[in-house]
Amino acid sequence: MSSGEPSDPSSAGVRGGPKRALSVLTFGYFVGFAGVVVYGPVASEFEDVLGLSGVLLGLLVAAPQLTGSLLRIPFSAWADSVGAKKPFSVLLGLSVVGMGGLLAILVAAYPDGLTLAHYPLIFLFGSLSGCGIAAFSVGITDTAYWYTSERRGTMLALFAGLGTTSPGLFTIVSPFALLAFGLTGTYAAWFAFLLVGTILFVVFAVDSPYFQYRKRGLDEQEARDRARGAGQELFPGGDALASIRTAATIPRSWLLTAMFFVSFGGYLALTTWFPSYWSNFHGLDVRTAGVVTALTFTLLSALFRASGGAISDRVGGEVTTIASFGLVVLSTLALVGTANLYVAVAATVVLGAGLGIASAAIYQLLPRYVPEAVGGASGLVGGLGGFGGFVVPPLLGLFVDLRGVSGYATGFVVYLVLGLVALGIAVALYRSEPTTVPTETPAPTGD
């Protein structure tokens, strides 16, 4: 259909339509993805009150990435079995539980009674707060089911692009809220935001037509036929976990995962780490540190990522990844060697550009290099690759423990090394012969 949407989904017995589905999914992901910065912008407050080492601080700010990355794989498989609404709602509900737990600890113990003994619980609830990040793999698949090929790419970009703006916005807002309402008041407001957002999602979310018909008792073939009449083109491709197992046997899946570990994992890790870097190493107050993080990295990297697909289509994914990781290497080299604020700001912008564009280019390469199991490889790349957001911050914190304040700068050598490794992989892929593009590409399931 020329519009890319079902002509009249209501006449086919479908509740809702593509525009409603996309709007609610994007809103839900915006709400859930805010959990990625649950500790980052206010990390210095926890660091002072709990007396945290650099490693413990790094683990704390990375806590949301643990669940937010690893849960993407099983929840995307679940969504392909029952539809998107239930898995998405469960992930947001877990985020609400996590934020409620953090708030309860603060109400009961902050500030005088809060000690290092509370750290395991604070880490646990922070991990739960990050569950909403995993909703990406659910929402991206459902968006692909709702839209036909003419508009699918644009709608997927809108979902991913608008949904990922919340970390940048919350990085700006959180320090101001901290100064205005205190730590407990800030988390109370955050809890209310999550709770209301989750309720709105549950009330207004709708599954794609195929799953709506299946839930009404129609058999597989009849549900597909009715859903096609409502405009749906893509359908679940079978056992999603089997596709993941197949992808895991293909070496190129792991090369792409390693690159995504550096690119998107780096985006997640540094989004939570940069506020501490700006405040502790460059002496900025918490509000300014949050604003600088958002404007020079978090929001900017998301915008560069949105353009990365178009750049890859024009010059090729291999060339784009090589250039992008080259920028990562150059910018981290500058961050390791400078104490000048303005040089660091410029290097951070370049770093954000490199990581954002590379993240998009990797998914442009995926169907060409793993055509045997695009869906499974997408899940591996998005889930395990995003795990870099949890692994890297403690390594950065180790440099702070070993070198003191200067470790905030020298710690970027971790990303210098990772950037060189990713650059080597990108060059190797460029020199290799890509596999033929599959004639049918399943709905994407990764980030």
Automatic annotation (TrEMBL):
It is a multi-pass membrane protein. One of its GO terms (molecular function) is nitrate transmembrane transporter activity. It comes from Natronococcus occultus SP4. It holds the Pfam family MFS_1. Residues 21-436 form the Major facilitator superfamily (MFS) profile domain. GO terms for biological process: nitrate assimilation. The chain crosses the membrane at residues 21-43, 49-67, 88-110, 122-145, 157-181, 187-206, 254-274, 286-304, 316-336, 342-366, 373-396, 408-430. Keywords: Membrane, Nitrate assimilation, Transmembrane, Transmembrane helix. GO terms for cellular component: membrane. The keyword Membrane applies. This is Nitrate/nitrite transporter. PANTHER family: HIGH-AFFINITY NITRATE TRANSPORTER 2.3. InterPro entries: MFS, MFS_dom, MFS_trans_sf, NO3_transporter. Its main location: membrane. Belongs to the major facilitator superfamily. Nitrate/nitrite porter (TC 2.A.1.8) family. It is found in: Membrane.
